[in-house]
Amino acid sequence: MAATPPDAAAQWGGGGRRIQAHVGANGVLSTTAPGGPALRWVGIHDPRYREPLVWATPLPVSAAARWRLSRDRWPIEQVPLAAKQMIGAHRACVFGGASRHRLLEWALLAGNGFAYVAATAAAVATGFGDRGCRPTCGRLRRVLLRGDFSEIPVPEGA
Hints:
Elements: E1 8-14, E2 17-27, E3 39-45, E4 53-57, H1 63-76, H2 78-87, H3 97-120, H4 137-146
Antiparallel strand pairs: 1-2, 2-3, 3-4
Helix pairs in contact: 2-3
Protein backbone atom coordinates (compact mmCIF):
# COMPACT_ATOMS: atom_id res chain seq x y z
CA MET A 1 0.00 0.00 0.00
CA ALA A 2 1.38 3.39 -0.90
CA ALA A 3 2.03 5.85 1.89
CA THR A 4 -0.26 8.82 2.36
CA PRO A 5 1.49 11.93 1.09
CA PRO A 6 2.41 14.42 3.83
CA ASP A 7 0.42 17.63 4.29
CA ALA A 8 3.58 19.69 4.70
CA ALA A 9 7.36 19.39 4.63
CA ALA A 10 10.03 21.23 6.59
CA GLN A 11 13.80 21.29 6.77
CA TRP A 12 16.38 22.95 8.96
CA GLY A 13 20.03 22.74 9.85
CA GLY A 14 21.26 21.04 12.97
CA GLY A 15 24.80 20.10 13.93
CA GLY A 16 26.21 20.62 10.43
CA ARG A 17 23.61 18.46 8.67
CA ARG A 18 20.27 19.00 6.96
CA ILE A 19 17.24 17.63 8.84
CA GLN A 20 14.06 17.00 6.84
CA ALA A 21 10.56 16.41 8.17
CA HIS A 22 7.22 15.35 6.72
CA VAL A 23 4.13 16.47 8.59
CA GLY A 24 0.62 15.08 8.46
CA ALA A 25 -2.40 16.67 10.11
CA ASN A 26 -5.86 15.54 11.20
CA GLY A 27 -5.01 11.88 11.70
CA VAL A 28 -7.22 9.83 14.02
CA LEU A 29 -6.94 6.41 15.59
CA SER A 30 -9.35 3.72 14.44
CA THR A 31 -10.83 3.66 17.95
CA THR A 32 -11.46 7.42 18.11
CA ALA A 33 -15.10 8.47 18.32
CA PRO A 34 -16.37 11.11 15.87
CA GLY A 35 -15.35 14.56 17.08
CA GLY A 36 -12.43 13.10 19.07
CA PRO A 37 -8.97 14.60 19.14
CA ALA A 38 -7.06 14.67 15.87
CA LEU A 39 -3.40 13.70 15.81
CA ARG A 40 -0.57 15.41 14.02
CA TRP A 41 2.23 13.09 12.90
CA VAL A 42 5.77 14.16 12.18
CA GLY A 43 8.38 11.98 10.45
CA ILE A 44 11.88 13.39 11.00
CA HIS A 45 14.69 12.22 8.71
CA ASP A 46 18.07 12.80 10.33
CA PRO A 47 21.05 11.70 8.17
CA ARG A 48 22.68 10.09 11.23
CA TYR A 49 19.97 7.41 11.43
CA ARG A 50 18.66 4.84 8.96
CA GLU A 51 15.05 5.01 10.11
CA PRO A 52 13.03 8.22 10.59
CA LEU A 53 11.87 9.34 14.02
CA VAL A 54 8.06 9.31 13.94
CA TRP A 55 5.93 11.22 16.43
CA ALA A 56 2.14 11.36 16.75
CA THR A 57 0.75 14.01 19.06
CA PRO A 58 -2.38 16.13 19.52
CA LEU A 59 -0.17 19.15 20.27
CA PRO A 60 0.39 21.78 17.55
CA VAL A 61 4.21 21.77 17.79
CA SER A 62 6.47 22.46 14.81
CA ALA A 63 8.64 19.66 13.44
CA ALA A 64 11.85 21.47 14.42
CA ALA A 65 10.59 21.94 18.00
CA ARG A 66 9.62 18.26 18.15
CA TRP A 67 13.13 17.26 17.02
CA ARG A 68 14.70 19.52 19.70
CA LEU A 69 12.40 18.04 22.35
CA SER A 70 13.52 14.52 21.42
CA ARG A 71 17.17 15.59 21.70
CA ASP A 72 16.52 16.97 25.23
CA ARG A 73 14.67 13.86 26.34
CA TRP A 74 17.61 11.47 26.81
CA PRO A 75 19.52 13.31 29.57
CA ILE A 76 16.31 13.56 31.60
CA GLU A 77 15.82 9.79 31.56
CA GLN A 78 19.05 9.19 33.50
CA VAL A 79 17.44 9.86 36.91
CA PRO A 80 14.58 7.32 36.61
CA LEU A 81 17.03 4.82 35.13
CA ALA A 82 19.32 5.28 38.14
CA ALA A 83 16.36 4.83 40.47
CA LYS A 84 15.42 1.57 38.75
CA GLN A 85 18.99 0.22 38.72
CA MET A 86 20.24 1.33 42.11
CA ILE A 87 17.26 0.87 44.43
CA GLY A 88 15.14 -1.58 42.46
CA ALA A 89 12.22 0.80 41.91
CA HIS A 90 11.09 -1.29 38.94
CA ARG A 91 10.08 -4.09 41.34
CA ALA A 92 8.01 -1.96 43.70
CA CYS A 93 4.25 -2.48 43.80
CA VAL A 94 1.95 -0.13 45.70
CA PHE A 95 -1.82 0.17 45.74
CA GLY A 96 -2.68 3.16 47.96
CA GLY A 97 -3.22 6.55 46.32
CA ALA A 98 -0.66 8.43 48.40
CA SER A 99 1.84 5.57 48.25
CA ARG A 100 2.00 5.80 44.47
CA HIS A 101 3.18 9.39 44.70
CA ARG A 102 5.47 8.86 47.67
CA LEU A 103 7.28 5.90 46.13
CA LEU A 104 7.83 7.74 42.86
CA GLU A 105 9.07 10.86 44.65
CA TRP A 106 11.40 8.84 46.86
CA ALA A 107 12.74 6.84 43.90
CA LEU A 108 13.41 10.00 41.85
CA LEU A 109 15.12 11.68 44.81
CA ALA A 110 17.27 8.62 45.46
CA GLY A 111 18.01 8.19 41.75
CA ASN A 112 19.09 11.83 41.54
CA GLY A 113 21.38 11.34 44.54
CA PHE A 114 22.94 8.20 43.06
CA ALA A 115 23.41 9.91 39.68
CA TYR A 116 25.22 12.78 41.45
CA VAL A 117 27.45 10.40 43.43
CA ALA A 118 28.23 8.39 40.29
CA ALA A 119 29.09 11.52 38.29
CA THR A 120 31.31 13.08 40.94
CA ALA A 121 33.10 9.94 42.17
CA ALA A 122 36.25 8.67 40.52
CA ALA A 123 35.53 6.04 37.88
CA VAL A 124 36.57 2.57 39.04
CA ALA A 125 37.32 -0.32 36.70
CA THR A 126 34.82 -3.11 37.31
CA GLY A 127 36.44 -5.81 35.21
CA PHE A 128 39.79 -6.87 33.80
CA GLY A 129 39.00 -5.51 30.32
CA ASP A 130 37.62 -2.22 31.56
CA ARG A 131 40.08 0.33 30.18
CA GLY A 132 37.84 3.31 29.40
CA CYS A 133 36.25 3.92 32.80
CA ARG A 134 33.46 6.46 32.94
CA PRO A 135 31.57 7.54 36.07
CA THR A 136 28.12 6.02 35.48
CA CYS A 137 25.34 4.73 37.73
CA GLY A 138 25.77 1.17 36.47
CA ARG A 139 29.46 1.21 37.34
CA LEU A 140 28.69 2.59 40.83
CA ARG A 141 26.11 -0.19 41.32
CA ARG A 142 28.64 -2.87 40.36
CA VAL A 143 31.22 -1.41 42.77
CA LEU A 144 28.68 -1.28 45.61
CA LEU A 145 27.64 -4.90 44.95
CA ARG A 146 31.18 -5.99 45.81
CA GLY A 147 30.93 -4.57 49.33
CA ASP A 148 29.61 -6.39 52.39
CA PHE A 149 27.54 -3.78 54.21
CA SER A 150 26.83 -6.07 57.17
CA GLU A 151 30.40 -5.49 58.34
CA ILE A 152 30.00 -1.69 58.62
CA PRO A 153 30.16 -0.75 62.30
CA VAL A 154 27.05 0.87 63.74
CA PRO A 155 27.78 4.06 65.75
CA GLU A 156 27.01 4.07 69.46
CA GLY A 157 23.54 5.34 70.33
CA ALA A 158 22.11 4.73 66.86
